[in-house]
Design a protein that fits this description.
Elements lengths: L1 E8 L7 H9 L8 E6 L3 E7 L12 E2 L5 E9 L2 H10 L9 H12 L9 E9 L5 E5 L8 E4 L3 E5 L2 H7 L8 H10 L12 E3 L4 E5 L5 E5 L12 H19 L6 E4 L4 H13 L4 E6 L5 H12 L3 E6 L1 H15 L7 H13 L4 E3 L4 H5 L7 H4 L1 H4 L3 H13 L6 H7 L3 H4 L9 H6 L8 H5 L2 H12 L6 H11 L1 H15 L4 E3 L5 H8 L3 H4 L7 H8 L4 H4 L10 H6 L2 H10 L9 H13 L5 H19 L17
Parallel strand pairs: 13-14, 13-16, 14-15, 16-17
Antiparallel strand pairs: 1-3, 1-9, 2-3, 4-5, 5-6, 6-7, 7-11, 8-9, 8-10, 11-12
Helix pairs in contact: 1-4, 2-3, 6-7, 6-22, 6-24, 9-10, 9-29, 10-21, 14-15, 19-20, 20-21, 27-28
């Protein structure tokens, strides 16, 4: 796990090593074990290392035997030993034990086709010194990040947005349209970012920049669903074997490893399988107010026999953690659960250097209750179209009553009623806080461009019913935009590597073959996964509910902290998109108990603080952990 950055100038004689070094300097938390800057007259690369594999000789950048290709990379390749054996059998001479050196040599043999052979999480940049081409690639699910900026003079990239901003000639300004998307999704969907001129490399893509500065973006992996006709038990057996294999290869490390444990089935399964191999400490956090999720985690740890560590986050700790959390996220992300992940990563980093976590299971195995909505709406959708239209129009004008929302949703196209799991309040509430210039029909519709693009892609694939279209959307928006963003940034904030065994190509292949009705019914989500876990986990652990990190934001805003938040939001400008006076009215309504605006207010607080930090370069980052004791080769 590392931080990488690079500056590719298209004109010679321009100093670019200082910009790359500046980008690397702000990513010390991503790599306390080594700090390197490499450059020639056309390209400069920066590398910060967190030593996990090849402790003594894994320094980057890496080059092949004749120096044609140079690589910097962030992540882990879990099948590197198998790939290494094949390379050596073909006469390739590898000089280190680094897993990423395998990528370098595979690329030298196969070009971008090599990426399809990797099992892992990664963002890599490969420089061809002969042609002057630079290729940057991101893993299939977007577990590891890569930001880039391209103009007539240069191409720049970095693992984090604040690092990339340090490498640019001028600090980029916030994009007003990004505010609209953020206030819709609670993050800015890729490939866009919150600032002008900077993009996220989408998951499963690579970008090539030629010596002349031409840029092409290529998709090299697409998640497709290929359901087969087999028995339920056959699917269970395949999924169980795939997950066990994935956890096994995710255990490959030369440093201490633990696991996050919430008490739900996903984290319990990964923890149990890991603990079978060798003792695996587990880590949980909970908040002083709200649901007591620590009890379930403790019960699961006792049943699994793990050495368990827990932390209860006080209100003051939570408030103190918001600014450093925002700084490490680098982009505005308004998922309150990020605060819990920030603190559980801090807790785990006191004991281990890597952790296993359960991210991705819900997206692969249909774990969200919302995925059942198309089935529940079937009685309405079977009505004649004229009756559907009339009922929907009547429901929209009717006062609040039982069944009204069901009819409204049933009469709304899927593309407008489902934009993913993250949603910041209602459309009316979002519109109420915008300045009049941004409260137009066009502006309010703009965020849907992000989800419409993904729906259009899904419609070009086979076997896409409404449930699969929802799942496809979450794989492209919610998973990389929220789940994996906070997982990467907030674990790396504490120099901790987070591994996600469910997001493995072999596990995906098994999950993609399961028909929808085998995974989901009116009563149960993740049916196959739950059955696969039943042979691994004690029955009482399988029965524990999924809680995640429930954060008491509503209570905080209703309490004394809410008055300070009111004053804070009244003084923000929000890039001219949001009306501070309207925001204050939302705070007052919330505190009076007439409405729950906690999600919108939390999002606006995150946006305002991020904008101040980013625009003034006053990032409150944590000092990196001390380096490991090893001898560099």
């Amino acid at each position: 796990m590392c931080g990488i950055a690079g500056v590719r100038r298209f004109e010679r004689g321009v100093d670019h090593s200082a910009q790359a070094a500046a980008a690397g300097a702000v990513m010390g938390h991503r790599g306390p074990d080594d700090d390197q800057v490499w450059h020639d007259e056309r390209l400069a690369l920066a590398f910060r290392r967190l030593a996990i594999v090849g402790l003594s000789d894994g320094r980057q950048p890496l080059s092949d035997h004749d120096g044609r290709y140079v690589l910097v990379g962030n992540g882990e390749i879990y099948n590197h030993l198998e790939l290494r054996a094949g390379l050596e059998a073909r006469g390739r001479r590898l000089r280190t034990h680094s897993d990423l050196e395998v990528v370098l040599h595979l690329y030298a043999e196969e070009g971008p086709d090599a990426f399809a052979r990797l099992r892992g999480m990664y963002a890599v940049a490969i420089w061809d010194t002969h042609t002057g081409d630079l290729v940057c690639c991101r893993d299939p699910f977007g577990i590891k990040p890569l930001y880039y900026q391209h103009d007539a003079g240069a191409f720049r990239f970095a693992s984090e947005l604040p690092a990339l901003a340090e490498a640019m000639d001028h600090l980029p300004a916030m994009r007003p349209e990004a505010v609209l998307r953020f206030l819709t999704f609670q993050y800015v969907p890729e490939p866009d970012t919150a600032v002008e001129g900077v993009s996220k490399l989408p998951a499963g893509h690579y970008v090539r920049v030629t010596a002349d500065g031409d840029l092409t973006l290529t998709r090299w992996w697409t998640p497709t669903f290929t359901p087969t006709t087999r028995s339920f038990d056959d699917y269970v057996e395949e999924v169980r074997a795939a997950i066990a294999d994935s956890v096994h290869i995710h255990r490959s490390t030369e440093v201490e490893q633990g696991a996050f444990l919430s008490g739900g089935i996903d984290s319990s399964l990964t923890s149990a399988l890991a603990n079978r191999t060798s003792p695996t400490p587990t880590f949980s956090v909970g908040f002083a107010h709200g649901i007591d999720e620590l009890t379930n985690a403790r019960r699961a740890a006792e049943a699994l026999g793990t050495q368990h560590h827990e932390l209860r986050i006080t209100d003051q700790m939570a408030f103190d953690g918001i600014d450093p959390m925002i700084a490490h996220l680098g982009e505005p992300l308004a998922d309150p659960a990020a605060l819990g992940l920030f603190y559980v990563s801090e807790l785990a980093a006191t004991k281990v250097t890597t952790v296993l976590s359960g991210e991705g299971a819900d997206e692969l195995f249909l774990g969200y209750r919302l995925y059942d909505e198309p089935r529940s709406l079937t009685p309405f959708t079977r009505l004649p179209k004229v009756m559907q239209s009339a009922a929907s129009a009547l429901a929209r004008r009717a006062p609040a009553m039982r069944g009204r929302n069901w009819v409204v949703r049933a009469g709304t196209p899927l593309e407008r009623r489902y934009i993913g799991n993250g949603r910041v309040g209602s459309a009316d509430t979002r519109a109420s806080v915008l300045n009049p210039a941004w409260a137009t029909a066009e502006a309010l519709a703009e965020p849907y461009a992000a989800s419409d693009r993904i729906y259009a892609q899904a419609d070009g694939l086979d076997g896409m019913d409404d449930v699969r279209r929802m799942q496809y959307l979450d794989l492209h928006l919610w998973l990389p935009g929220d789940i994996l963003t906070k997982a990467d940034r907030l674990s790396m904030a504490h120099s901790l590597e987070l591994r996600v065994p469910f997001l493995d190509r072999v596990v995906w292949d098994a999950a993609s073959r399961i028909p929808v009705d085998m995974s989901l019914d009116a009563h149960t989500t993740k049916r196959v996964l739950r059955a696969a876990a039943a042979d691994v986990l004690p029955p009482d652990v399988c029965a524990l509910p999924k809680l995640g990190f429930p954060v008491p934001v509503r209570t905080w805003i209703s309490g004394s902290w809410g008055m300070a938040l009111r004053d804070e939001l009244a003084g923000e400008d929000f890039g001219g998109v949001v009306d501070p006076a309207a925001v204050v009215r939302l705070v007052d309504d919330h505190r009076a108990g007439t409405a729950d605006h906690s999600r919108v207010l939390w999002a606006l607080m995150i946006l305002g603080r991020w904008h101040r930090q980013f625009s003034t370069r006053t990032l409150r980052r944590l000092p990196p952990r001390p380096p490991h004791a090893y001898t560099a080769g």
